[in-house]
Structures are given as C-alpha cells and as structure tokens.
Specification:
Largest sheet: 2 strands, antiparallel
Oligomer: single chain
Number of helices: 3
Strand order of the largest sheet: 1-2
Shape: elongated
Helix content: 40-55%
Number of strands: 4
Order of helices and strands: EEEEHHH
Strand content: 15-25%
Structural class: alpha+beta
Radius of gyration: 29 Å
Length: 109
C-alpha cells in the first residue's frame, strides 16, 4: 500500500497530486513599533496554486513569460539581421584599420 500526498489550494480548492507549481503564501501583519515576539501580530498562511497567484498578480503568468521570451527573440533576430547604416559601416572599417595598424606597430617593435 502506497501513500500519496494531495495538495489542495486554499483559495480555489483545486487539488493536485504533485507539489509542482504549488506555493505557500504567508502574510504577516504587526503594529508599529514592531514587536518581535512570537505571539504578536497576525499571520495568514495559505497554500495556493499557480493560477490563483497569477490571478492575484503575485506571479507573472506563464503566457506573459512566453510572450516576453518570444518578443526578446524577435528583437535579437531583428537587431542581428538589420543592415548597418553607412555611418556604422565606416565606423567599423575605421576601428578595424586602427586595430590592424596597432598590431603592425607591436610586431615592428
């Protein structure tokens, strides 16, 4: 006989059999000035699924993260594929000439 653990979201009551994408959310409230005693203040602790934390805007949604990753890929690709302006081409040529000239001077010394 095996034992299995069931994780239940305290917010939406959804159940799952793994702890993957399951979070413990704890809020601690104390008055000012803060008293550092174990019994002071109020605590609220709940177990929550990812969907509930996304709904509360405490975690970025998986969809938002995927959209951001795709946008970054597209930006990098467009920057890499973009044709250099005449000024940028000239700047690169000048830098290369300077590097070669300095290398030749070092070899000649």
């Amino acid at each position: 006989m095996t034992t299995s653990m069931i994780y239940k979201c305290d917010l939406c009551e959804k159940e799952q059999d793994t702890e993957d994408q399951f979070w413990a959310l704890e809020v601690y409230l104390d008055h000012y000035p803060i008293q550092r005693y174990p019994q002071s203040g109020a605590r609220l602790k709940v177990d929550a699924c990812r969907e509930c934390l996304e709904r509360l805007q405490l975690l970025a949604s998986m969809k938002e993260r995927e959209v951001e990753r795709e946008a970054n890929k597209q930006l990098k690709a467009s920057l890499a594929a973009r044709e250099l302006s005449l000024g940028e081409k000239l700047e690169n040529i000048i830098k290369e000439v300077i590097e070669v000239t300095e290398q030749n001077k070092e070899k000649g010394d």
